[in-house]
Amino acid sequence: MTNKEQTSVLITGGNKGLGFEAARRLGELGWTIFLGSRDESRGQDAADKLIAGGAKVVMVPLDVTSDESVAAAVQLVRQHTDRLDVLINNAGAPGNFVPPADATADELHSVYDTNVYGPVRVTQAFLPLLNAADNPRVVMVSSGGGSFAVMADPTQPVASMHELAYSSSKAALNMITVRYAQALPHIKFNAVTPGEVANRKFAATDMNRHTGRLTVTEGTDPFLELATLDADGPTGIFIDRLGPIGW
Ligand SMILES: NC(=O)c1ccc[n+]([C@@H]2O[C@H](COP(=O)([O-])OP(=O)(O)OC[C@H]3O[C@@H](n4cnc5c(N)ncnc54)[C@H](OP(=O)(O)O)[C@@H]3O)[C@@H](O)[C@H]2O)c1
Q1: What is the residue with the minimal CA distance to atom 19 of ligand 1?
Q2: Residue 2 lies in a domain
Q3: What pLDDT, in 10s, does the model give residues 177-224?
Q4: Could you tell me if residue 1 is inside a domain?
Q5: DSSP codes of every residue in 195-209
Q6: Residue 202 beta carbon below 6 angstroms from any ligand 1 atom
Q7: Measured from the CB, is residue 38 less than 6 Å from ligand 1?
Q8: Number of domains making up the chain
Q9: Which pLDDT does position 2 carry in this prediction?
Q10: Are 194 and 215 in contact (CB under 8 A)?
Q11: What is the overall mean pLDDT for the chain?
Q12: 117 catalytic residue (yes or no)
């Protein structure tokens, strides 16, 4: 069991990219890291790296598109703790950037399964453990692409990246964040984009073939900000590393 003083966090898609970097940074704070990974061996490799650096890490096999996998993840986490302080719904799928005229419902469905239904599946399943924490926090990893304010601004490069699945999935995730925040005020639900919206920057990861101009450390600054909120911190906000951004 984790002791009362040690903060615990579950990070979905923690085996690489921003999820891994968030795990590394929170591990440095002495937190217990439940490192979600849909592929066990990739997850174990990532966990081993963090453990070698001194972090306390439990690898949790977790495919956010599977009810069975999520239920098994709850059972595993329960073997180590009776509460979860922080959940970071980070796992995400970019889709195939199919132009709107060619986009099918199947294409949208596969992206929504990860980016929309995934965070709902995981959040819902972990609510009892979150409810047992003194100051539970849920961080939804969204995107500037999910912001109507960003997409309606023609000077934003994403506004001319024509696709339907990814941007609309993150817009749905934003609304889900707001609705959870309103209904469950004892848990902080906040959304984050890893970029700098004002400077048209995003973080270099596999998802964008490392074309981002921010490091993963910079990209995870707002993850850390929301994960470490005090009890009197905000709920229902959307931020990047520079501050609040438009929905
Ligand atoms: N990079 C940016 O600047 C940027 C900007 C806006 C939003 N985001 C968001 O940030 C989050 C992390 O992305 P990233 O940039 O770090 O990309 P990444 O390096 O490609 O990481 C994506 C992670 O999600 C995992 N994943 C995908 N489908 C999953 C599933 N069904 N179940 C569990 N895990 C799954 C991947 O696992 P596998 O290794 O098994 O594929 C991987 O660990 C995503 O939600 C993304 O939309 C990133």
Answers
A1: 17
A2: no
A3: 999 999 999 999 999 999 999 999 999 999 999 999 999 999 999 999
A4: no
A5: SBGGGTB-B-SGGGT
A6: yes
A7: yes
A8: 1
A9: 47
A10: no
A11: 97
A12: no
